[in-house]
Structure formats: C-alpha cells, structure tokens
C-alpha cells in the first residue's frame, strides 16, 4: 500500500488494538450541545406489532417528514438532475459525501461558495456523512464491494483511493484527484462538515467488513467510540465557527455481534447526539441485515431520529420502517435510472404473473440442531386447488421479463422498442406525466443519450418519494405495512419473503448438517410452505443497498397458490 515517496510509511494498520487506549474525557453535561433550530417529534406509532412510527424532523432549512428517503448528491450534485427537478419530485432531503468533497474541490471551496445548500441551490434539509465509510473501503477494498454489493469501481467512487495509514489518530491517504496527501481525523471530519454546512452531520467512524473476527470488530467498535467522543468535543469546540446551526449524529457499530451492538447502542444512547445512525457491518445478506437491524433497534432509545446508513432497497425500507428507522440513503434509485432502469410497482406486472409467482411461508421452524424431515398438507392441497409446483426453469429470463415480477425494469431491453406507453401510466412523476414513452426512453438508453438516464432518474426519485409517502400515510392511518408492501413488491420480493427464504436455507443447512452426523433426527411439524424466493432481494439493493442496475433475480423457486 505504500506508494512512491512513502516507502517508509507503515502499512495499513488493520488492528485497532493498542496499549492502554483510553476514552477521551466525557463532555460535562453543562457543555452538552443543545441543537437550536432542530427538533424531532414522533407523530404516530403503529398500533400493531411493529415499531413503525412517523415523525417530524425540523432543521433550520425545513422539515423532513419521516420515514423519508435521502438521495445521494455524492459530490454536491445529483447525477443527471438539478435540485429544482429533485424538488419537483417531492424530495425532502439530500446528502453529500465529506470524503469526496474533501478531495475535490476541498471544503474551503464549498464554504466560499456559501455552503452546500447555496452552491447546489438545494434550499432544504441536507446531511453529510463523515467520510468513515470511505476509510473503511480504502482499508478493506474488495470486502467493501462485497458488503455494498459492488463490483469494482463505482460511479460514486470511480477511482478507489489509496490509503496510506489508519490508526488511532485517523487516516492518511493519497488523493485520487491530484495525488496529494490528505488526512481525515475525527476533528478534521467535523471541521470539513462545518465548512460544507449541511444540517445533519455525522461522527467519524470505521465500518468493518462482516468477515473480520469478533476481536477485530470489538476493537474497531471501541475505537469508533473514541472517535465519536472526539467528534463530539470538536463539534462543541467549533459551535460558533460554522455559518449555521448543525446537529450531530452518533453511529452505532458492533458488526453482526449482539453484545457489541448492545455495547455500542448503550454508548451512543448515553451521549448527547441529536440523532442516531445504524452503521457498520450489517452482514452478508439482506436477511443478515434484517437481523442486525432488528436486534440493534431493540436497544436504541426511541426519542431520537434514527438513520440506517447506505440501505435503500424497497423491501429493506419496509423492514427498517417496521423497526422504527426514520431515514434511509442509497445510491440505487439514481444509479439505476442513469443506467436505464425504472422502479416499478406490482401494478406493472400482469396479474397472472403475480398470482402464480411465489408462495413463501417459512417452510421450517429453524432448529440449529438439524431438521431431517418435514410434513405439510401443502403439496396435496395445492394440487386439489389447481396449483402446480414449478421450478425456476418455469420462468423465462431475458426477453421474458414481463413474466417474472421484479422491483424494476430495464428500458434497454428490446421488448420496449415500439412500446408507446409511459413507464407507468398511473405515475405522477414529471417523466410519466409528460408522456415520455418507453419506446423513446429505450432509444435514449440504447443511443447513450443523457436525457434518457435523467428522465428515468426523475421517475425513480419521484417513485421513492411516493413510496415513503405511502408508508407514512399507512402508519398514520393504522394500516398494516404489509398491505402497503403488497402494492409495491410482488410475492417473492417482499421483506417477509426474504426472511422466509433465509429460514428455508438455514433449515436446509441444518438438515444437511444433521445428515453429516448430527446427533438426532428432528422433524419440523406442520411446516406450512414449500417454496420461497431464492435470492429474492427486492431490487439489487440488498445488504449494502445500491448494488445495482435492474434486478436480475429471475431464478425463483415458485409454488403456485
Ligand atoms: Zn414515472
């Protein structure tokens, strides 16, 4: 990792273990920040089983009704759309990335433009992250890609930067922009975010990949706590230096380990942060992520706004909202759009495809000791009622997209040539309302015309905001979230399907383990379902959110109802 001129530099220090590392002094209560101009109030709580709630997050630049989606203006720009267009799509809040703006053009340059909101003409609430995630991706490279579902360089980060060292003080790295050596520490991250001037800012943290051992995760989590305290101290020290009031979020780390998440949640709960973000490794799959969110949210104090970092698949949002998450961010809707993909709801798909798609009750009661046999009336009852079990090969792929419901469609596909309909005739977005046809969008995408990606991004932004509005309305009206999800995702793609598919996989693995010499035969009694979605991620968002383009989760093991 050492580069020319830095041969003597230590290699990346991956072990945040050191002798006698002590927490910085805790801030005395009489010095705690008070966050003038900010407020969070809970408006409605789900009266059913879930912890879903609506809230009103007030900032000096306006109000965010939660749950809400935060769109990524990574380098102080939404790729393909102006902020006026974002506003026309009912966007409430956007974010920019501290690390990328530190590299180019530098936070002082943004400050001299009057701050992010003035420079971008986004006059609403805004968030900046701390740059911690980039430190993590510099240090762990492909593992970051793994968690985020990314393959190689990304749009947001086309030139992966070069990390020179990471240690207790912070990180040193070589700029991908001009080769200069840059520093990012808890203190400089806050100073940069002061210059940028977003309403909501984050403490510096390190995000570990899921495959590192518990010892590493524990040491990293505690270092992130020390960084959080330093960030808090710097936030207080610089309270009068920024051009405007800001509010600081702490970040809960702890990886996939319950006791570490509990330790981290207790730490963040106790410190005077305005809001709480859930970060760190969320596991290797969407189902892992749901488990980590579930167990973490059970430990989070309920009077603060909660943000889930980097997650934004449609099914992931339903899962997160049900646990009380208020805001989500992910590059997926905008990246999908500029690569020719359009988010679609269930109504896009023929009823026949949806009703035949997937029946996905959990097939087994999971049992870590191993399950060998299953019983259920389902196969016989199904047959009596006209249903037939089918395998993945039943469903066509590629050109037969119309037969397999997904969370998005890819306009580049040949089936849209000559299709005069808008993406969604019932959609109110500026693209669909203006009547742009699938045929024209197909042409633009195929021809590489930028306006095609912009029009689809506009549709996707509007659609995500419509999704969040539906979610808020349902919570306020006491409507079960599952009913809303049924309108958005076809069977097999829903959050419950992802959980069910995971339970089936785990049950199968347990059964296999028992067959290899397990210590007993255990039957799962009255398991009700047979099949569930395999790889049923909603839209490529998955555990990291934002992996990608149009979902290609065409392999579905399906049981007709
Ligand atoms: Zn539309």
UniProtKB/TrEMBL annotation:
Domain (tRNA-guanine(15) transglycosylase-like) ranges: 51-345, 369-485
InterPro entries: ArchSynthase1/Queuine_TRR, TGT-like_sf, tRNA_ribo_trans-like
GO terms, biological process: tRNA queuosine(34) biosynthetic process
Pfam family, one: TGT
UniProt xrefs under SUPFAM superfamilies: tRNA-guanine transglycosylase
One CC-aspect GO term: cytosol
Region (Disordered): 1-30, 535-561
UniProt biased composition (Gly residues): 537-548
Protein's UniProt keywords contain tRNA processing: yes
Domain of life: Eukaryota
Alphabetized UniProt keyword annotations: tRNA processing
Protein name per the record: tRNA-guanine(15) transglycosylase-like protein
């Amino acid at each position: 990792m050492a580069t020319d001129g830095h041969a003597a530099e230590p290699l990346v220090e991956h072990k945040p273990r050191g002798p006698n590392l002590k927490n910085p002094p805790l801030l005395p209560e009489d010095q705690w920040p008070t966050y003038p101009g900010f407020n969070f109030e809970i408006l409605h709580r789900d009266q059913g089983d879930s912890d879903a709630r609506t809230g009103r997050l007030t900032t000096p630049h306006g109000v965010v009704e939660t749950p809400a989606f935060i769109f990524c203006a990574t380098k102080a720009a939404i790729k393909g759309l102006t902020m006026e267009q974002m506003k026309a799509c009912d966007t409430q809040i956007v974010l920019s990335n501290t690390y990328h703006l530190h590299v180019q053009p530098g936070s002082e340059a943004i400050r001299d433009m009057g701050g992010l909101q003035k420079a971008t003409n986004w006059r609403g609430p805004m968030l900046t992250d701390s740059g911690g995630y980039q430190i993590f991706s510099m240090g762990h490279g492909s593992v970051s890609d793994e968690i985020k579902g990314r393959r190689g360089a990304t749009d947001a980060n086309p030139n992966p930067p070069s990390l020179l060292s990471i240690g207790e003080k912070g990180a040193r790295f070589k700029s991908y922009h001009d080769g200069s050596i840059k520093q990012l520490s808890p203190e400089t991250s806050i100073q940069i975010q002061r210059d940028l001037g977003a309403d909501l800012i984050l403490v510096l943290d390190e995000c570990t990949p899921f495959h590192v051992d518990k010892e590493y995760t524990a040491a990293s989590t505690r270092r992130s706590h020390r960084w959080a305290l330093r960030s808090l101290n710097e936030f207080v020290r610089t309270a009068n230096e920024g051009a405007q009031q800001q509010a600081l979020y702490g970040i809960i780390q702890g990886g996939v380990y319950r006791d570490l998440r509990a330790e981290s949640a207790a730490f963040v709960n106790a410190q005077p942060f305005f809001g709480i973000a859930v970060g760190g490794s969320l596991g290797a799959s969407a189902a892992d992520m749901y488990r980590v969110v579930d167990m973490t949210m059970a430990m989070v104090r309920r009077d603060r706004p909660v943000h889930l970092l980097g997650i934004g698949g449609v099914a992931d949002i339903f899962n997160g909202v049900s646990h009380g998450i208020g805001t989500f961010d992910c590059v997926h809707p905008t990246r999908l759009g500029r690569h020719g993909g359009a988010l679609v709801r269930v109504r896009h798909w023929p009823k026949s495809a949806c009703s035949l798609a997937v029946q996905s009750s959990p097939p087994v009661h999971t049992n870590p000791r191993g399950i060998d046999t299953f019983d259920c009336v389902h196969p016989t009852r199904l047959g009596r009622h006209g249903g037939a079990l089918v395998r993945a090969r039943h469903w066509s792929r590629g050109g037969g997209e119309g037969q397999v419901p997904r969370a998005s469609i890819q306009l580049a596909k040949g089936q849209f040539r000559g299709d005069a309909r808008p993406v969604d005739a019932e959609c109110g977005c500026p693209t669909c309302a203006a009547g742009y046809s699938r045929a024209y969008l197909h042409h633009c995408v195929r021809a590489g015309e930028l306006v095609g990606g912009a029009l689809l991004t506009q549709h996707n932004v509007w659609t995500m905001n419509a999704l969040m509005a539906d979610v808020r309305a349902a919570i306020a009206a006491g409507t079960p979230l599952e009913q809303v999800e049924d309108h958005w995702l076809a069977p097999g793609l829903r959050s419950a399907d992802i959980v069910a598919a995971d339970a089936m996989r785990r049950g199968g693995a347990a059964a296999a383990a028992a067959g290899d010499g397990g210590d007993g035969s255990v039957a799962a009694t009255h398991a009700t379902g047979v099949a569930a979605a395999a790889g049923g991620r909603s839209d490529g968002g998955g555990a990291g959110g934002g992996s990608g383009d149009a979902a290609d989760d065409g392999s579905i093991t399906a049981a007709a109802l």
